[in-house]
Design goal:
Pfam families: DAO. This is FAD-dependent oxidoreductase. There is one protein chain. The two termini are 35 Å apart. The relative contact order is 0.20. α2 runs parallel beside α10. 32% of the residues lie in helices and 23% in strands. The protein contains eleven helices and 18 strands. The chain is globular and about 65 Å long. It is an alpha/beta fold and 429 residues long. The protein has one domain: 3-Layer(bba) Sandwich (FAD/NAD(P)-binding domain). The strands form three sheets. Strands 1, 2, 8, 9, 10, 11, 17 and 18 form an eight-stranded mixed beta sheet that branches. The chain has an eight-stranded mixed beta sheet with strand order 5-6-4-13-14-15-12-16, sandwiched between helices.
């Protein structure tokens, strides 16, 4: 088994990182070469704005190249819960923003000629317990009536053609949801940004940021660059950046590990025996699982296997064993199927699990996607580019306050307690 992201292993790396030292002056510096930062850079470069991207490792190293491969519309909350928390108008606006972002991804892929197996597969949210059916049905009725008629509720007997597991009691089908090959998309996005004029430095972590007249001086081990505006697009990896430039975010972003395994390619008979519906799937548990088939027919199966703030080979291996057990419990027929890949990545959570975009500490930012970044971050990249160019009316998160997480300064010591709490909720639900 390989301890690396399937998306990294099966895509061609970005071919044109900037050679030589980090230097010069640009209109905008973007910190982070994931979906958010790269689409911001692509948009800016297309509009004639000089832009540089600084990436601590390589293009797509973080969450954009380590997720489950889902582009699911909808948010991290039940829609009724979002209405109660945000108000009806903002909840609807945010819901529609997720829809717009998936539409935008499809448009970018077409415009830039990115070959990444994008497909409108639909998402099926599965009721893991009989007691979850009523709540899932109520959420469906509100969503179907108010924001998304392209939804359908499936009774337990209707799941047969979708998923062959006896663990589920019904489901909600979201027709607009999609999937794609994340590694090919993120590298294609980098190629597009470069083609339009953006410069992208890899292995260039930001180590300092200081005022320089009306702009900023950004330090890296490879040199220093100056810019009028700075965009922070680091999400779950904000806490790995040196403290000086991103201290505001480390007190508000909780970095939580999410872990994934991928089987060997499955035969047609094995697919028919597991996921004949060939959609993206998520379960209704707080500590649940998400899964789909890859373009080469592997079962990609992930979840919050352990409440950990680290992702390295040791941590990933421990989580892989937990995921293997969950996979076998859900699909006993997969017990003897080999796992070819195991990896983890950091999810950028906010206290209330709503994303944020705005300006703070002299930087524009978009992050806090709380496990829904693959679908939202492309839109947020364009929003940040608009803000850098003085356009302030495209941000669906404008005005949403972002308080600190109490007693949090970048190291989430409380994650085991959170895991115990949600585990208890799942047991008694």
């Amino acid at each position: 088994m390989q301890y690396q992201s399937y998306w990294h292993a099966t895509s061609t790396p970005f071919a044109a990182p900037q050679a030589g030292p980090v230097e010069g002056k640009v209109d905008v510096v973007v910190i982070g070469a994931g979906f958010t930062g790269l689409n911001a850079a692509r948009k800016l470069a297309r509009e004639g704005v000089s832009v540089a991207v600084l990436e601590a490792r390589h293009v797509g190293f973080g969450g954009s190249g380590r997720n489950g491969g889902h582009l699911n519309n909808g948010m991290a909350h039940g829609y009724g819960e979002a209405k109660a928390h945000l108000g009806a108008d903002r909840a609807k606006m945010l819901w529609q923003a997720y829809d717009r972002s998936i539409d935008m991804i499809e448009d970018v892929i077409s415009e830039e000629g990115i070959d990444c197996d994008f497909r409108r597969s639909g998402k099926l949210k599965l009721a893991s317990k009989a007691s979850h059916v009523a709540g899932l049905r109520a959420n469906f009725e509100t969503i179907h009536r108010e924001v998304d008629p392209d939804t359908r509720f499936l009774e337990k007997h209707e799941l047969t053609g979708e998923i062959n597991s006896d663990q589920f009691h019904g489901g909600m089908l979201y027709g607009k949801s999609a999937m794609m090959h994340m590694g090919r998309y993120v590298n294609g996005l980098a190629e597009a940004a470069h083609r339009h004029g953006a410069r992208i430095w890899e292995e260039a972590p930001v180590t300092g940021r200081t005022r320089d007249g009306t702009g900023w001086k950004i330090d890296t081990p490879k040199g220093t660059i100056r810019a009028e505006r700075v965009i922070a697009a680091t999400n779950g990896y904000s806490n790995s950046v040196e403290k000086a430039p991103l201290d505001f975010f480390r007190k508000r972003i909780i970095s939580v590990g999410s872990f994934i395994v991928a089987t060997r390619p499955l035969s047609d008979a094995e697919i028919a025996a597991t996921l004949p519906g060939d959609r993206t799937y998520v379960t209704s548990l707080n500590i649940g699982n998400y899964f789909r088939l890859s373009p080469d027919k592997r079962l990609i199966f992930g979840g919050r296997a352990r409440f950990s703030a680290t992702s390295d080979q040791s941590s990933d291996a421990k989580s892989g064993k937990v995921l293997r057990a969950a996979l076998t419990q859900m699909f006993p027929q997969m017990a003897e199927v080999d796992l070819d890949y195991c990896w983890g990545g950091m999810v950028g959570m906010t206290k209330d699990r709503y994303p944020r975009a705005g300006e703070a500490d002299g930087m524009l930012y978009g992050m806090g996607y709380s496990g829904h970044g693959a679908q939202m971050s492309t839109l947020m990249g364009q929003v940040l580019a608009d803000m850098a160019m003085g356009r302030t009316d495209t941000n669906p998160l404008d005005g949403l306050s972002w308080p600190k997480v109490p007693l949090h300064s970048g190291k989430p010591w409380f994650l085991p307690l959170v895991g115990m709490y949600f585990g208890l909720k799942d047991r008694i639900s």
